Amino acid sequence: MGLMAVNPIVPNTWEVRCHFSRTDGEEMVNTFYVDDGGGSLGPSDATDIVAVVEGAWTDDLIPYMSNSVSLDKITVTDLTTLSGPQFITASALVGALSDNPIPNQVAGVVTWRTDTRGRSFRGRTYLGGFTEAHSVGGAPDGTLRSAMADWASDLNGGFAGLPHTQTVVSRYHQAVAGVPPTIPRVTNLSTAITAWSVDLAWKTQRRRALKG
């Protein structure tokens, strides 16, 4: 018997996807979720969300990123139905530093938390594109960690000001028998983020380093 397919619909939720590219041809994607605020996704909503995303990166992270990395576009998608609207906005943010970039698969990590226990109700954002200028002893230095914390606060607070609540989407739950360990939810859950933290060390993205 085959496994149940993952349901792509997430009630009351929009997806925000940031597409980055490097001059070596590699690509990165960061994905976030916000609640729909009780409304339908329209062009002005997408414009407001893009402004928050670009503002957080410009103010907090672009000064520490390699000039070999650029944010090329931001896609905002209504996940409440299979035919939900989607808006793609071109961007042109480029990192400011010209020194040696750290390896492509290495990233700083922000962990997002909700008030619900369990791995399914936590999220992580892998932030790439940084350089050796703020890498000390195999870890991001204090200046960069502070910048990542500011970025998380500005992103979360910016969404709230629209107003939208940033969320973690849970698509799997623990299997009762433990085999397989998790199974797809019949109805996906979107849970409000209430706290976040910055990891002290660099982490390896492995499969999270997307291309294509």
Task: Describe the structure in your own words.
The protein has 212 residues and is α+β, with helices and mostly antiparallel strands. The chain has one domain (13-208). The chain has two helices and eleven strands. The strands form two sheets. Strands 1, 2, 3, 4, 5, 6, 9, 10 and 11 form a nine-stranded antiparallel beta sheet that branches. A two-stranded antiparallel sheet has the order 7-8. A hairpin with a 7-residue loop joins strand 5 (106-114) and strand 6. Residues 208-212 have low confidence and may be disordered.
Shape: globular
Beta-strand content estimate? 35-45%
| Straight-line distance between termini | 32 Å
Q: Average pLDDT value? A: 93
- Total count of strands: 11
The value of Rg in angstroms is 17 Å
Main beta sheet = 9 strands, antiparallel
| Count of discrete structural domains | 1
The helicity comes to 10-25%
Order of helices and strands: EEHEEEEEEHEEE
- Which stretches are low in confidence, meaning pLDDT under 50 for 5 or more residues running? 208-212
Q: Strand pairing plus helix content: what structural class?
A: alpha+beta
Number of helices: 2
